[in-house]
UniProtKB/TrEMBL annotation:
Pfam families: Trehalase (PF01204). Residues 1-18 form the signal peptide. Keywords: Glycosidase, Hydrolase, Signal. It catalyses: alpha,alpha-trehalose + H2O = alpha-D-glucose + beta-D-glucose. Gene3D superfamilies: 1.50.10.10. This is Trehalase. The keyword GTP-binding does not apply. The lineage of its organism: Eukaryota, Fungi, Dikarya, Basidiomycota, Agaricomycotina.
Length: 347
């Protein structure tokens, strides 16, 4: 079996939600003409197009194809959700790399090209697949852009309360990481409509407001990560970014009906701890912006209903015969997770 049984290191990285990349924020290039102490220019988001690094030789033939996992009604992309071929070939150390690459042509034509390639499936080699992916897919994360934080205050008041000078200096550095983690959707990089449908296909769920990413492979907005991000943003007095984060979640509640795990279609049947209402409460306490509640409260009710209807079971205690409503995680999914396909934690 050619499956790339990814190393435990990856599992650790997934758990740790990898630290922001980009190094020391004080070294952010100041190319922007109006750069000043309080206006930090947009970071250059390195859209690292990871180079394929298969663990087998390039002329190795792919394993005979295992049957496709059952198609999932909620994730209909034939390229990114169902097919195992690219994933079992283990082109990248992280299976998330492939599913975050938008196609460079219509889904229909990419699938036709692939079908053509696999006509002689017994001899399809690792290098043929690398060439195919390189020519038909773009860089992972290319639809996102780094954004500046207007009027970034490098010295918010919480820092004055940190008495130990070393801890204060370190807190200032951590505060500076915000400048590396602000993203927007690059609208002109999204797949546009052509005469015969979308000109390309991508797993990204585009968001209309600015957001903060956890960093590393987590290049989208995430649900419960945002709860912790909001705690920090409030300390850092970056209230507009909290508002924008909440606006994105409200958009998702309106358009999707619940808040998915993260901003990719392969997360559409998974949520995360439902902390929207806590983020909202923290934001309103910190800002007194009660105007947000007109839109937010009905949507918070909607989220609660979604959890009650889709994620709650009645459990009767065998000891007391009392029945309790228990909310739990669940996913209507019987296939491998596309972004963690065949990833096995060894420890
Ligand atoms: C399929 O392969 C043939 C032979 O190499 C080529 O002529 C044709 O253009 C290919 N079609 C597609 C859709 O890739
Ligand atoms: C590969 O198979 C497809 C679908 O059966 C067919 O349309 C195409 O012409 C074949 N290509 C080659 C190169 O044989
Ligand atoms: C700083 O400490 C004072 C005194 O404990 C407290 O009143 C104030 O809220 C603190 N400020 C911040 C920004 O945490
Ligand atoms: C946005 O996407 C367009 C089209 O791909 C590209 O030319 C432009 O450089 C992107 N902007 C940023 C800031 O990445
Ligand atoms: C929060 O964001 C919304 C949408 O962009 C905007 O209309 C509203 O004015 C913002 N609220 C504050 C207090 O800035
Ligand atoms: C973003 O705005 C566009 C255009 O107004 C809209 O069609 C789309 O549904 C919005 N996205 C979300 C997640 O609300
Ligand atoms: C919010 O409003 C209350 C009541 O007017 C006031 O006591 C409190 O200081 C305000 N908080 C902020 C953060 O402005
Ligand atoms: C989930 O809940 C919503 C609204 O509460 C309901 O309309 C929908 O049918 C439920 N979906 C499933 C798969 O149970
Ligand atoms: C749990 O019990 C309540 C009260 O009897 C009922 O309304 C609800 O539909 C039950 N929920 C489920 C998931 O069975
Ligand atoms: C729980 O209910 C069942 C059936 O109604 C009964 O047989 C059992 O004795 C009850 N147990 C307790 C602890 O009340
Ligand atoms: C149970 C569940 O989560 N169902 C959802 C699966 O995803 C589709 C598409 O987003 C939703 O409509 C379902 O409610």
């Amino acid at each position: 079996m050619l499956a790339n049984v990814a190393a435990a290191a990856l599992c650790l990285a997934q758990l740790a939600h990898a630290a922001p990349q980009g190094g020391n924020p004080s070294s952010v290039s100041s190319s922007s003409s109006d750069a000043s102490l309080t206006s930090v220019p947009a970071p250059t988001v390195t859209v690292s197009t990871v180079v394929a690094s298969p663990t087998v030789s390039s002329d190795a033939t792919l394993p005979s194809q295992i049957p496709d996992p059952p198609a999932q009604s909620w994730c209909t992309s034939q390229i990114f959700c169902a097919g195992p071929t690219v994933n079992v070939a283990g082109l990248y150390a992280d299976p998330k790399t492939f599913v975050d690459k938008p196609t460079s042509a219509s889904a229909q034509s990419v699938l036709a090209n692939f079908k053509n390639l696999t006509n002689s499936s017994s001899s399809l080699t690792e290098s043929q697949l690398v060439n195919f992916v390189d020519s038909k897919f773009g860089g992972e994360g290319t639809e996102l852009e780094g954004l500046p934080i207007p009027d970034f205050n490098p010295s918010p008041s919480f820092l004055q309360n940190v008495t130990d000078p070393l801890v204060r200096a370190w807190s200032g550095v951590v505060h500076g990481y915000w400048t590396q983690l602000i993203r927007g959707t690059n609208q002109s990089a999204l797949c546009s409509e052509g005469d015969a449908g979308p000109k390309c296909e991508s797993t990204l769920i585009p968001l209309n407001h600015t957001f903060v990413v956890p960093g590393g492979r987590f290049r989208e907005q995430y649900y419960w990560d945002s709860y912790w991000i909001v705690q920090g943003l409030i300390k850092s007095e970056l209230f507009d970014l909290v508002n924008a984060t909440l606006q994105n979640f409200m958009d998702e509640l309106e358009t999707i009906g619940f808040i998915p795990n993260g901003g990719r279609i392969y997360y559409l049947n998974r949520s995360q701890p439902p902390l929207f209402i806590n983020m909202l409460a923290d934001y309103v306490s910190a800002t007194n912006d009660t105007a947000i509640l007109d839109r937010a409260l009905p949507l918070a009710e909607r989220e609660l209903t979604w959890w009650q209807d889709n994620r709650t079971v009645n459990v009767t205690s065998p000891f007391t015969n009392q029945t309790y409503a228990v909310a739990r995680y669940a996913a209507a999914n019987t296939a491998p997770r596309p972004e963690s396909y065949l990833t096995v934690c060894l420890r």
